[in-house]
Amino acid sequence: MTGMLTAAVPGRHVQTREPRAVLSARGLRREFGGFVAVKDVNIDAYHAQIHALIGPNGAGKTTVFNLLTKFLEPTSGTIRLDGRDITRLSAARVARMGLVRSFQISATFPHLSVLDNVRVALQRPRGLGYQFWLSLSALDRLNERALELLESVGLQDERHKLAADLSYGRKRVLEIATTLALDPKVLLLDEPMAGMGQEDIARVASIIRNVAQDRAVLMVEHNLKVVADLCDRITVLQRGEVIATGDYVTVSENEQVKLAYMGTGYE
């Protein structure tokens, strides 16, 4: 776990109107045989806010992500996207509805250019996903939007590079651009800062802050300094259960959270 859980004032804007929950889960539970990995989790992701899901290793964070995005089916509980029950829908269906995620391992096409990676991602929302008979030049209609997305994440000058030739941090930035190509209502980021140096962390944090201006962002993140600086709201998991929810100051002062991060020796 990166950083100490000490009180800090998040560096996010102050909300001037009542936030709207775009993604909500109630009583979310997942059992594997006799093992309860996630137990009665309630969580809300709000429009134009960044929500962090944190907790010690093995707390169930990735399992919750997999449940929300339908890579796993919940044993019980409900999930709603924009008020619609998506609990039993497929992962592909909810992605088309605007619930889009990244993964811990970068998922780009290494032997395509940066620009072509984004153009591939744009094919489905632009109705070109299954039109295999079209020539490559037909994809030129996607260039304007692809370049806009690359500019929004600071990759416009590297658009002709192969994705394989980007640094690790820049590959993660490219992955954010490809997820934005799907125009998500909710963007779920699984450890977006993992393995990055300070310069890349600052750059990606700035991108996420900008992305969250017009959509909900829910992220799993181990770097607590990033969480303190970036996130409006935090949910803390331990052994598959929510032990605290609130802003950073609130959760950092919670005795259960202190115990979870610092162990029984905390005073």
Question: What features would you describe in this structure?
Answer:
The protein has 267 residues and is α/β, with parallel strands linked by helices. It folds into 2 domains: 1-88 and 194-267, P-loop containing nucleotide triphosphate hydrolases (Rossmann fold, 3-Layer(aba) Sandwich); 99-183, P-loop containing nucleotide triphosphate hydrolases (Rossmann fold, 3-Layer(aba) Sandwich), CATH 3.40.50.300. It contains 9 helices and 10 strands. The chain has helices at residues 61-68, 91-96, 114-123, 143-152, 168-180, 198-211, 224-230, 248-252, 255-262; strands spanning 21-32, 35-46, 50-54, 76-81, 84-85, 99-101, 186-190, 216-220, 233-238, 241-246. The strands form 2 sheets. A 6-stranded mixed sheet has the order 6-7-8-3-9-10, sandwiched between helices. Strand 4 and strand 5 form a beta hairpin. Helix 3 (114-123) runs parallel beside helix 5 (168-180). It is globular and about 50 Å long. The two termini are 19 Å apart.
Attribute tags:
267 residues; alpha/beta; Rossmann fold; 4-stranded antiparallel sheet; 10 strands; globular
Under CATH, the homologous superfamily of the largest domain reads: P-loop containing nucleotide triphosphate hydrolases
Arithmetic mean pLDDT: 86
Structural domains: how many: 2
Our measurement of the CA-to-CA distance between the termini, rounded to an integer number of angstroms, reads 19 Å
Give the CATH architecture of the largest domain.
3-Layer(aba) Sandwich
The largest beta-sheet arranges its strands as: 6-7-8-3-9-10
